[in-house]
Amino acid sequence: MTPAEPDAPQTSDVVLDASALGALVFDEPGGEQVLARLTSAAISAVNLSEIVAKAIHRGKAGDAVRAALAGLPLRVLPFDAQQAYSAAALYPAVRHAGLSFADRACLALGTTLQLPVMTADRVWGQLSLPVDVLVIR
After folding, report:
1. Is 22 part of a structural domain of the chain?
2. 53 lies in a domain?
3. Host domain of residue 51
């Protein structure tokens, strides 16, 4: 789903990390918290790609994954130059914790939108970040 689709929410109050969306998609602990916020959630296209790749790795067909995710009321936002610089600037502060590029893309989107980020990665809650972090498990 993209922001241009008529069913996509136009405003968001939380940004999802791939691990948060994964908790919902793969019926993992914390998924119910994601479901409760889904209609007002945004996700970076980078994180969407990460969760689709994980589903394919788990044996799901790409077209089926796309169809299932397209049915979610989720605002998917492109990764732009501003977020690229923001994600890169986060690297020195988070490299010791092992945050990936996709993790930093999520944090950059949260920073850009001035919204909290939702994740299943507990380590995020222990870091000094420019956004609030909601850990789902």
Report:
1. yes
2. yes
3. 14-135
Number of domains into which the chain is organized: 1
Block residue for tokens 């990936």: 100
> What's this model's pTM, rounded to 2 decimal places?
0.90
CATH number for position 97 = 3.40.50.1010
- The DSSP code for 72 is S
What are 70's two structure tokens?
A: 């397209």
pLDDT digits (tens, 9 = 90+) for 32-62: 999 999 999 999 999 999 999 999 999 999 9
- Does residue 3 lie in a domain region? no
Please answer whether residues 76 and 43 qualify as being in contact, where contact means their C-beta atoms are separated by less than 8 angstroms: yes
The string of pLDDT tens digits covering residues 123-137 is 999 999 999 999 999
Do residues 117 and 18 touch, judged by C-beta distance below 8 A? no
Q: In angstroms, rounded to a whole number, what is the distance separating the alpha carbons of residues 119 and 80? A: 21
Query: What is the Cα–Cα distance from 118 to 26, expressed in whole angstroms?
Result: 16
Q: Which tokens belong to 5?
A: 């689709």
